[in-house]
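Quick one: structure tokens for this chain, please?
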Amino acid sequence: MSKYIVFLSTTVVSFSLFFWMPLDANTAGMGKLYVVGMGPAGPDLTAPRALAIVEKADVYLCSPRMPERFARFGVHIDPQKVAFDAWERMMGKGAEGQKKEDPEGWAIRMKERVAKVQEFIIQRLREGKTVVMMDGGDPCVYGPSLHYLLNGFDTSLFEVVPGMGAFNAATAALRTTVTPDGVRFVVLTSPESLFGESWEKGDEIIKDLSKYETTMVLYMSLSSMNEVVQRFRKYYSPDLPIAIVYYAGYPDRERVLRTNLARIEEDLKKMDENWLGLVILGKCAK
């Protein structure tokens, strides 16, 4: 009988740790790992296959709040099967501040957490169980499970079950296509990817992109929008349309702010959220 373990993670950051854990050469009888995209807002934006895997799970790595959250959508997670929260104090606003203040210490703590999580999973796999890591959104687009916790993990031991990402939910909230006439590219990126963790990189990429009609989607950017705006103002018109979708996919919290490059800093002062929002720049944001 197949066994299932589930890991849930709902936050996204950008930082690479190169960690490798040796596995036994003989994997006969080993269990299997699933990385499951659970949607940016929870089970209501999750594929049926992913939910079926969740309901069959034997062990979960997730927030203790997850069973209650999923129960509201008719999905059962036994609280007794929750082992621990793999991301406790490692993700979110507080962790982002620690990362900036003490990057070396943060990297050491993250590496230790990765080692703990991978060791736990390997032990369960050796018991013949199947591990399912439930990622918040699309695991392959700034998903923390693949980016962090499974860095160096044997890819033959896991399968990715895709889910709706924040990009899908945010563009649906705009109710328009992100590829209108004339748009040459749709770029999914982040300020850290564009400009570096310490903003040490130059502006060559956005300088080049400014020559073309482009839809640009910025993940994890609300906390650094002042710096982003200053960079973009060098190459883009003040009337460049910008939309920010807050809490994309949350039916009771989703909100869309439509602005432009000239007004965005003033408009952001009126908002009370500086973390959970996706920034979309281009014609589709009008």
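The chain has ten helices and eleven strands.
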